[in-house]
Amino acid sequence: MSAVPLDSSPFTLPDRAEAAATLEAGLWSQNVGLVQLLGLCPLLAVSSTAVNALGLGLATLLALTATNTAIALIRRLTSAEVRIPAFVMVIAAVVTSIELAMHAFLPALHAVLGIFLPLIVTNCAILGRAEALASRTDPARAALDGFAMGLGFLGVLLILGLLREGIGQGSLFADAGRLLGLPRLELDFSSHRFLIAALPPGAFVLLGLLIAARQASLNRR
Predict the structure, then answer these.
(1) d(CA 206, CA 35)
(2) What is the pTM of this model?
(3) Is residue 197 a contact partner of residue 160, using CB atoms and an 8 Å limit?
(4) 151: which DSSP letter?
(5) What is the DSSP letter of 122?
(6) Which of 17, 39, 69, 159 is 20 to 30 Å from 170 by CA-CA measure?
(7) Taking every pair of C-alpha atoms in the chain, what is the biggest distance, in angstroms?
(8) What angle do CA 151, 153, 154 make, to 5 degrees?
């Protein structure tokens, strides 16, 4: 269950304890990638490098926060019969705006991420948060929940990207100029690499190890 209360009064801000609980849920106890196992297609496909993972993670974070907020604002205007199509339209509009902005300002990264940017529309995590929470609570809490869930997804993407690039390609933050605007910010140790980590099977193995590490830490408590 979410840490955010449902059917809150409009435009109220969560207190510090509630905000902390929501962030903890998004980052740890309800993490989209490690617990709910949603959005695995982009999670595994795009995390081949840290820069790609960071770019897609930031786009997903923006999409989750913006769509949650927008859906919370229109929640009283949509009937039960049309709410899912309405949510999908909102999500598609937000994701398209993010994709166009990335195409304009970060064309190299946009070209690398390719089809996975518009496919954010089909990410089950976004529609799931819209249906389970954003449509039932006020905009402030919906925005906080979207930010927390997006941050958790970004964290898993970035960790996977760092591991896969470091182990599989022997570098870190190669082509950082695509996202950070710097000519180069790269650590190269390509003489020590294990190629399978950069391939899809390696992504599954590393994600499984991350899930196992999380479970092991819970079992010690």
Answers:
(1) 15
(2) 0.90
(3) no
(4) H
(5) G
(6) 39
(7) 59
(8) 60
